[in-house]
Amino acid sequence: MSDVTVRLAEVHDVVEVARLLTDLNQTVGVGGYPPAREFDPELCNVTADELQRRAIVMRNLETIYVAEVAGAVCGFVSLRLTPYLDQDVPYAEITEVYVAAEARRHGVARALMLHAEAQAARSGATSVHLVTGADNHDAQAFYKAAGYEDLYVGFEKFLPAAYHGAPSHA
Amino acid sequence: MSDVTVRQVTARDAAVVAKLMSEFNDLVGADGLPDHEHFQPQNTHVSEKQMMRRLELMAPVEKTYVADVQGEPAGLACLRLVPYIGQDVPYAELTQIYVRERFRRNGVGAALLARVELDAVTAGATCVHLITGADNYGAQAFYWARGYESQGVEFEKFFARGGR
Fold it and tell me: In chain B, what is the greatest distance between 2 CA atoms, to the nearest angstrom?
């Protein structure tokens, strides 16, 4: 296996990460939308400009890290660290993790997860959370092998904006 | 049903929030910790000072609500509203909801949830997310009855357990 490097995403990665996020959206659907809309190309396709804008407003809350193999970005992970009511230390959540299809089975996802976990631990968090699809058995097996326990179920309620088109905050 | 009022609270209300949260922790265990630490008093008990700091830190990203019944605090809820990578609108998550035992079956939980959903809609969110215990069937029935669907499994990795 080639060496995998994980590092903080930088401004020049925005095109690659936008492409990976678009791939991810096209694979699993855009979160927060009902089945009838989650594969809507308008929602799935994320441009570099959109991603950059989101990264700016996420600053101090959610951080994107990228994986490189042989100098090429082939995956990313996004880690949210937020204050919460339960503890004095932050709540840590891996909100996205994705590896390009051609780069799979080389330990890239594992390297991304370990990096995000180390960052979460460094912030003082005592655990890290993530949500995956109830029917995504491959992902679930991967998380269990990585030391995660499936303790909770996730619920969603779609609000009127999900059906009528979400306003853009551009 | 008694009159339920829901109000958004701030760090000035830390005393009541600390009391409610400590009670909640005593029932379900403190979050983010492995089993053997869940019910240790130093983890479940939250002081007013601790809660004041938490509420101050949360203010930009998470709203906290207290429900009162006839002037007495009956429950609490929190709504996290954060920018995220997935969309230009905020990610909305109900991160807490607790109703004191003696105020249950009075519509307090429903009133808190309705307020959370209203504020999520107002913020432009397309969805309210939440997680609940895989074995908490009572809570799951409550959410199904209020239009929620279960599509995800939530995983947690405890750092203290030697996972890394």
Answer: 50
Query: What residues form DSSP beta bridges with B127?
Result: A158
Range A54-82 average pLDDT: 96
Question: Looking at chain A from residue 85 to 124, which residues have their Cβ under 8 Å from any Cβ of chain B?
Answer: 85-89, 91, 95-96, 114, 117-118, 120-121
Q: pLDDT tens digits for A131-155?
A: 999 999 999 999 999 999 999 999 9
Cα–chain-centroid distance for residue B66? Answer: 10
| Cα–Cα distance for residue pair B117/B128, rounded to 1 Å | 7
The model's pTM is: 0.94
Identify the three-state secondary structure at position B44.
helix
The residue among A17, A3, A23, A24 whose CA lies nearest residue A111 is A3
Burial of residue A80 (number of CB atoms within 10 Å: 0-12, 13-18, 19+): buried
CB A154, CB B158: distance < 8 Å: no
Dihedral over alpha carbons A106, A77, B93, A85 (to 10 degrees): 110
| Mean pLDDT of chain A, nearest integer | 93
- Closest-CA distance, B62 to chain A, in angstroms, reads 8
Q: Does A158 touch chain B (CB under 8 A)?
A: yes
List all residues of chain B from 91 to 130 with a beta carbon under 8 Å from chain A. 91-92, 95-96, 117, 120-121, 124-130
Q: How confident is the model at residue A1 (pLDDT cuts 50, 70, 90)?
A: low
C-alpha span between B11 and A166 (Å, rounded): 32
pLDDT in tens, A98-115: 999 999 999 999 999 999
Whole-angstrom Cα distance, residue B152 to residue A155?
Answer: 7
Average of per-residue pLDDT across A86-95: 96
B138 touches chain A (CB under 8 A): no
Share of residues in chain B with pLDDT > 90 (%): 85
